[in-house]
């Protein structure tokens, strides 16, 4: 069993076929028994990305609705969804200031750091932070988290 935190840029690859999708899908192989953490805001970001794609015509409205439905279903069973607290907001503000991150990226990193701290305090292994965002990944490494970029694993 491994512990992963997926940001929105990685999680979307489970629902839309793009570079790195096969690698992300592997994380969900039942036999691996991986634990997948996401920030609650990731659900909003995924719905926004899917809706945007349907509006531009890159996916159909029907497919977009099916993907959003699947995300809602998966959120109940496949993910440990981490809610955004005042502590996360405060950490995100510091991370945004330190690394010049966009708002939601700073929140994603703050959640990943918080989950990692809790895992280590509980005697569990470190999480691996999974993101396809190169700018965010620089900050992830600076925060000394393990990091994987699914774009490094083209199908």
Describe this structure in words.
- It is a single chain.
- With 155 residues, the chain is an alpha/beta fold.
- The chain has one domain: 3-Layer(aba) Sandwich (Rossmann fold), CATH 3.40.50.
- 56% of the residues lie in helices and 12% in strands.
- The chain is built from seven helices and five strands.
Number of domains: 1
Number of strands: 5
The amount of beta strand, in percent, is: 5-15%
Structural class: alpha/beta
Keywords for this entry:
155 residues, Rossmann fold, alpha/beta, 7 helices, 5 strands, globular, 5-stranded parallel β-sheet
Structure summarized in a few sentences:
It is built from seven helices and five strands. By secondary structure, it is of the alpha/beta class.
Secondary-structure blueprint of this entry?
Elements: E1 3-6, H1 8-11, H2 21-27, E2 35-39, H3 40-56, H4 61-77, E3 80-82, H5 86-99, H6 103-121, E4 128-130, H7 134-142, E5 146-148
Parallel strand pairs: 1-2, 1-4, 2-3, 4-5
Helix pairs in contact: 3-4, 5-6
Protein name: tRNA(fMet)-specific endonuclease VapC
Pfam families: PIN (PF01850)
Organism: Microcystis aeruginosa NIES-2519
């Amino acid at each position: 069993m491994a512990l992963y935190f997926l940001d929105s840029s990685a999680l979307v690859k489970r629902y839309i076929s793009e570079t790195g999708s096969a690698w992300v899908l592997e994380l969900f192989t039942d036999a691996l028994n991986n634990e997948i953490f996401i920030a609650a805001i990731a659900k909003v970001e995924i719905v926004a990305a899917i809706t945007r794609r349907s509006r531009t015509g890159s996916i159909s409205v029907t497919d977009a609705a099916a993907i959003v439905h699947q995300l809602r279903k998966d959120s109940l069973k496949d993910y440990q969804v981490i809610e955004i607290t005042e502590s996360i907001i405060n950490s995100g503000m510091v991370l945004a200031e330190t690394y010049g991150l966009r708002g939601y990226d700073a929140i994603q990193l703050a959640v990943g750091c918080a989950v990692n701290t809790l895992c280590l305090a509980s005697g569990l292994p470190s999480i691996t932070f999974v993101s396809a965002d190169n700018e965010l990944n620089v900050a992830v490494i600076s925060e000394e988290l393990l990091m994987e970029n699914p774009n490094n694993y083209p199908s």
